[in-house]
Amino acid sequence: MVNRKSNEEKRKMNIIYETIANEMDYESLPRNWQLPNIQYFSNKTLFDYQVNAVKNIIKFLKYFYEDIYEFPKDHRYENFLEAKKKLYNELLKRNNDLINLGITDDNEAVRNLLQYYDYKIENGKKIVNFYNFVNRVGLWMATGSGKTLVVIKLIELLDNLMKNRKISENDILFLTYREDLIEQFKKHVKEYNEYHNKKISLYDLKDYDKIKYGGILINKDDINVFVYRSNLISEETKEKTLSYKDFENNGKWYLILDEAHKG
Known about the structure:
Layout: H1 7-13, H2 16-22, H3 48-68, H4 77-94, E1 103-104, H5 108-113, E2 119-122, E3 125-128, H6 147-163, E4 171-176, H7 179-193, E5 200-204, H8 208-213, E6 223-229, E7 233-234, E8 242-243, E9 253-257
Parallel strand pairs: 4-6, 4-9, 5-6, 7-8
Antiparallel strand pairs: 1-3, 2-3
Helix pairs in contact: 2-3, 3-6
């Protein structure tokens, strides 16, 4: 007899992070883990589903950084890697199919990952272990649902948690695959800034070295975010494309990838 999982069962298997977040009560989190005025954006406020998206991210960050990672006590890279393994083992308890999600070195893009991530060898193939990729979340939101507002509140959240020393201090990078989407993002950031004392300042990723190391003046009181097109990040720097190797930065990024299924 064939055991066929229903679509609902398959869906539940794919939302383990949301399940973990739903097991936590946002209102019971310590005050320095909560985002003040979480609904407030401009002359508009976020809808409940947008607020819930931000809350779920907060809860999972709390789960990873405090309940698993014990940051900032264990802030070395080796401990961060062990934390990802521990999270992976927690996920396996909920869905042991994850054990088969390693990435094999079948193409050049994956082979490039071998210099950055742990891997194992099975049947002559090098496989990048899935636990390397568990420290990320995905939000599925329909077109026109206001995901850009959620992204901007996420940026505010990351800044707030870094200032409270709850998560690592990393640079923030926003990527999306079309120029009009970047312009739309900038438009919403401008709207946000008109209603907040602490502004979000956007910088072209091309200027990263000048800003970080070249003495270009930036307002350290702002939330500084780098922006670029995801489809122009490549393996080689040319007139428009940028090599990811030039901006690897030892992985010290909070990367927000808009339209992650494209570009």
